[in-house]
Amino acid sequence: IYTPIFNWYFYADGVVILCLWVGARLLAPPDERVLRLNGPAWLNTLGTILAFLLLNLEIADYFSPPGSTLTFQFVDNFARDVAYTVGWALFALGLLAVGIWKKTRAARFAAIGLLSVTLIKLFFHDLAQLGQLYRVGALVAVAAVAIVASFLYQRFVPADDRRTHS
């Protein structure tokens, strides 16, 4: 039986993502260095990149006809385009929350970067396909996401950690 979300992409990639994150957790000092690199940081980074790839695979698979070749497209299907935008925004907010919780500067910067790319996609691609009233609604939703992200960042990230170090 074909299911659009809980499919082999989800299971195969999900197991690898889980293994990467568990491996990062299990590498404890003094054994955290692998080939002079910080093992947990690399494993967490690879797991997060694979999770983002899985999100995009699942969206593409959901909007592909059963049995067809999986393709990434950003034209001819407004629902799919919005699903990518919403998925990316939620992923960025989740990454920001994890970066704040774990006090990981790289995760916060990656979240802000992804949120910026998402907003650019929304403004230059998605809004062009909307009518006037829906544009207003989309802009209100974007404003809400930006307010939540800025509130989280201002409230939970210390001021001295927000400054860039020269």
Helix and strand arrangement:
Blueprint lengths: L7 H19 L6 E2 L2 E2 H24 L15 H24 L3 H22 L5 H25 L2 H4 L4
Antiparallel strand pairs: 1-2
Helix pairs in contact: 1-2, 2-3, 3-4, 3-5
The profile of the biggest β sheet is:
2 strands, antiparallel
Tally of helical runs: 6
The strands making up the biggest β-sheet line up spatially as 1-2
Kindly state the percentage of residues in helix.
over 70%
Overall 3D shape: flat
Residue runs with pLDDT of under 50 for 5 or more positions:
none
Strand-pairing-aware structural class? mainly alpha
The ordered string of helix (H) and strand (E) elements is: HEEHHHHH
Query: Quick check: average pLDDT?
Result: 82
- β-sheet strand percentage: under 5%
The Rg value, from CA coordinates, equals 18 Å
- Span from first to last CA? 56 Å
> Would you count the extended β strands for me?
2
Report on the architecture of this protein.
The chain is an all-alpha fold. The protein has helices at 8-26, 39-62, 78-101, 105-126, 132-156, 159-162; strands spanning 33-34, 37-38. Strands 1-2 form a two-stranded antiparallel sheet. Helix 1 (8-26) packs antiparallel against helix 2 (39-62), helix 2 packs antiparallel against helix 3 (78-101) and helix 3 packs antiparallel against helix 4 (105-126). It is flat and about 55 Å long. The model has no long low-confidence stretch (mean pLDDT 82).
